[in-house]
Amino acid sequence: MIIYTLLFIAGLIGGLLAGITGVGTGFIMIAVIPLALANMGIPDVLIVQLTIANTIFATMCSSFLNNVQLMIKRKMYWNETFILAMVAGATASILLQLIVYNSTYSKEAYNTIIIVLLAYIIIRTLSKLRKRLEEKENITLPKLIVTGISGGAVAALTGLGGGSMVIPMLNLWMKVDIIKAKKISYGTIFITSLLLTFLNIVNKPSIELSYSHIGFILFPVALPLAAGVIIGSPLGLKLGEKTPARVISYLFLTIIGIVMLRKIIELL
């Protein structure tokens, strides 16, 4: 019962942070889900795949709610979102089947990828914050395609939804205001996580699980997470609209710094 409560709290906090920062719910969940799975006696060989699959499922629930609210308020950026979502979704779907479902994709490789990614994001974001310059937005199709590929790769290989890459690339590379970047990220995250969730449902784990599940979606994990994000995401979105861009950037850095530290400890 304690594990399910912790998963619900992780979903609640993840949903709040997703609404505020736009990076998806995954940062909290990739730290909590492996602990829950180990406590449930899930074999090590399935920990990474199940962590990614159930994080993505919760992220899909959260991003759906956030996108509905943005559409009601007519605050979507359809052109940029569509291009990023299509490229990210295609990239993520391919990598999920080629790499993540492969038993050689170990926990060590998983944690190493996350640590390197987060370290890069922290360095680049801090560099941007120090400059304090107003720069002209520079969105181009090639840049959107590269960003979509990067976001899709991150979503498939880590379960973070892709926002952790999409937002920094929009903000740092294309000079998009972080509030706008956050809104574009919501749509990209939803389409990508929807495609990946479908794949995680139709594919089956290599070892039979004793818990109720559909494919890689494990009900005792996915349902408490989803309940948490359904409550937390709308609240986070409202808070995010009242939060200054600079504060969002520092909150974003704090979250990924904590997760990076956790993953370094796991790796060591």
TrEMBL record:
<feature type="transmembrane region" description="Helical">
    <location>
        <begin position="45"/>
        <end position="65"/>
    </location>
</feature>
<keyword id="KW-1133">Transmembrane helix</keyword>
<feature type="transmembrane region" description="Helical">
    <location>
        <begin position="184"/>
        <end position="202"/>
    </location>
</feature>
<comment type="similarity">
    <text>Belongs to the 4-toluene sulfonate uptake permease (TSUP) (TC 2.A.102) family.</text>
</comment>
<keyword id="KW-0812">Transmembrane</keyword>
<feature type="transmembrane region" description="Helical">
    <location>
        <begin position="214"/>
        <end position="235"/>
    </location>
</feature>
<dbReference type="Pfam" id="PF01925">
    <property type="entry name" value="TauE"/>
</dbReference>
<keyword id="KW-1003">Cell membrane</keyword>
<feature type="transmembrane region" description="Helical">
    <location>
        <begin position="247"/>
        <end position="265"/>
    </location>
</feature>
<dbReference type="InterPro" id="IPR002781">
    <property type="entry name" value="TM_pro_TauE-like"/>
</dbReference>
<feature type="transmembrane region" description="Helical">
    <location>
        <begin position="7"/>
        <end position="33"/>
    </location>
</feature>
<feature type="transmembrane region" description="Helical">
    <location>
        <begin position="77"/>
        <end position="99"/>
    </location>
</feature>
<dbReference type="InterPro" id="IPR051598">
    <property type="entry name" value="TSUP/Inactive_protease-like"/>
</dbReference>
<dbReference type="GO" id="GO:0005886">
    <property type="term" value="C:plasma membrane"/>
</dbReference>
<keyword id="KW-0472">Membrane</keyword>
<feature type="transmembrane region" description="Helical">
    <location>
        <begin position="144"/>
        <end position="164"/>
    </location>
</feature>
<protein>
    <recommendedName>
        <fullName>Probable membrane transporter protein</fullName>
    </recommendedName>
</protein>
<feature type="transmembrane region" description="Helical">
    <location>
        <begin position="105"/>
        <end position="123"/>
    </location>
</feature>
